[in-house]
Fold:
Amino acid sequence: MSNPGQVTMWLGLIAVCISSACYAVLCFNRDNRLARYAARSSFVGFATLATIASMLLMHFILNHDFRYSYVAGYSSRDLPLEYLVSSFWAGQEGSFLLWVLLGAWLGILVMFKAKDMEPQVMLIYNLNHIFLAILLIKQSPFELLLFTPPDGQGLNMLLQDPWMVIHPPVVFLGYAAFSVPFAYAVAALWRREYDGWIKPALPWAAFSFVSLGAGIIIGAYWSYKVLGWGGYWGWDPVENASLLPWLAVIALMHGMILQQTRRKLRKTNFVLAVFSFLLVIYCTFLTRSGVLADFSVHSFVDLGITGWLVIFMFAFLAISIGFFVARAKEIPVSKKGEGLSYFSREFGLIAAIIILCLSTVVIGLGTSAPLITRALEKASKVSTQFYVDTNLPFGILMLFLLGFVPLLAWGKNTVSKLTRKLIWATLGGITSGVITLASGFPGTGVFLLSLFAGAAAGMNLILVVNLIRKKITISSGAVAHLGVGLMFLGIVSSSVYDRSEKLLLAQGSLQNAMGYEMKFQNPTLLREGKGVRLYLPVEVKRGSAQFIARPDIFSEAGPDGQMKRFAHPHIRRGFISDFYMSPVDFDPGKKTHGPGDYITVKKGDKVQFHDYELTFERFDVSGMTSKKDSRHMRVGANIVVSHKGAESVSLKPMMTVGEKNEPSSRVQLPGPKDAYLTLMSIDAGAKTIGFVYHGPESAAKKHVESPPALIAEVSIKPGMTMLWLGTILMLAGGVIAIVRHLPK
Amino acid sequence: MPKKSYIIGAIVIIVALIMAMHSFKSSLTSYVSVGEAKVSKRPVQVAGIVVGGSKRYDFKKNSLFFTLREDGGDEMVVQYDGPKPATFNDATKVVAIGKYEPKKQVFAARELLVKCPTKYEGQVKGE
Structure:
């Protein structure tokens, strides 16, 4: 075969199969040193081959080897280095390779950290990678074209952003990490180590949380910064596909913490580990199988892996159920008498897990709506409002727990001990409640949400301060929960209290809107790559503060020859609120035609001059047939003219064309008495006519121009800083948790 | 753990799921033609192209108006008040989700989907 990439991937598949076979031997005969050696080295071989395959693809991209369909489809010669690198994961095939690569690398870490559990953990982990490798070979980035195009189609403009360079690797690192807790969970059932797996798997669950969470947030930030629709989350299937496993892994983390400290929820944690991993596959199926093609802003293309994904999903479901059923009776349940008080940290954690699972189920239901309804009748999707409505009560309950549960100790609690500490939650709640009410009552649900978000932030802030002084690592939960509180405050303020207006900003004139003074200045056009970027600077003033907003519109011809435009918003970040200006349209302005002007119009088009609107319907060639003089022809034009919107009048000026053009005689226009039109030229090739308008003297003075204008959507979004700060803290809490739970 | 709490927990979960199902059913929108959209009482979604030159902005109402033409050639005027998707300008195909208002003779869209090319974009495979 002449395709080194494809060969490498096949070899990789063989290596990971050998590794699995050897691990299978080890599962039953753990002292077989040869098998251990072979299993480990063939896994390292698999990781090496995955690395080689990735390097090959990167090599082809960097060297513009357009024989490869993938390289031709996602990169081009003029791309700068960083976007050449990121075109590696711009398409489905490349991002699958990235997933396998990251999974293989993580696998080496798992292999050397799993100790006694290694054979079973690595067998399950390998099975997962066998499937991924098969998918990758089915959907190969090394497919060759039958011809070599001179240049590639390039990377989509929207993806040419630094955040989109790192977003996919971070997401796929998270996706790859999900299979580690799953492998541990199944291995634990196999080995009857119902508690022993938690310790090594917990940091991996935390790692999946941080990585996928960071990916989601980077995606949201990119959407806010680049897409210019003013939002950061649209409940699109692609977004939900990351959110679902992420919520499940948060539930898993909490379950694991409860099991580690109180020896509870053993069965639940198995289910959660399996559930979160299967969600990764299910969501991959949803977003890559084409089943949602009509229901997303993204175009999904089925590359023929749907069947494999379904087999993949059911195979792992069957393995998990099989092990679970076989061991279910043996799994110890928490002792009777160790009763659960409603007033304890345990109860709070269990409630949190239930809420997270319910939220996952509901979002999963919404995302799968086209699939479910297709089975019943017509495929339908749910509106985004569905996700908001159903998750609002979960959000309220969750934030209530976050403000209150951190106070509770494990086991039993008494009210009197707590009231003193509750003051911080109360203070936080009152502060956000008062601010919310001062900004306008948002409805009971949202009001409760911001009330409890404030309480959660207040409570956890004081916890962070107290805990960090003792030992940084024990503050992981408090830091993450403070982040969640702030994030929800940011979500409420930016989505409920944002103000937005569409404005028509004519060049040079001052416009007042939303408390700002805006003046659209000279637009400038700059060539950039294959397209042009139109900068639309607007001088913005508020009180003494002044800045220039520079939204722009980038246009380039797509591979199909159609012009594509990408509007970039300008964001002026502020501590309290963001000023967001998104260009909607640019009107280059028009010169209205006045008397004496020579005006051309195309067949079928309309043209406006002074108070008239003229439509050129068709040429009138009736004069040609009657007189067969080759040097001169009488040709006319059928035009329809209306004055100031009054009823249209049909006119048929005729002119002589040939060796010597003779303009038509003056034709009286409707409206004022002394308004005429003379047909001056006829161009049959370009299908245009040219005429001169002789208006009344008075019209000459009204000869006006309309200046260029920018149509922009301007919005003021409060709380964005708080939102991003919250998400960063939430992830920072996750990072602290990884460190905290790393096996010593 | 007392058995009672299991029952309470189960009831809470069931109630939550029933409410979710109810919300699910009421927020479903299915694809219909322009003709069907004009008589539908429920929110629906209609796919079509934006008729060239039909876009206009009403700055007083803060809305965008355009004419949507479906494959069969049927047309209707769509009003959209929300933020405009970045790729709308050059959208060949849009999906408007909302309800037709017979009094105003416009389709009031509450969501506008524009086929936006991201990493899931299909490749043009050479022959």
In short: Residues 117-127 of chain B have pLDDT under 50 and may be disordered. The two ends of chain B are 66 Å apart (CA to CA). The longest strand of chain B covers residues 106-114. Residues 3-26 of chain B form the longest helix (24 residues).
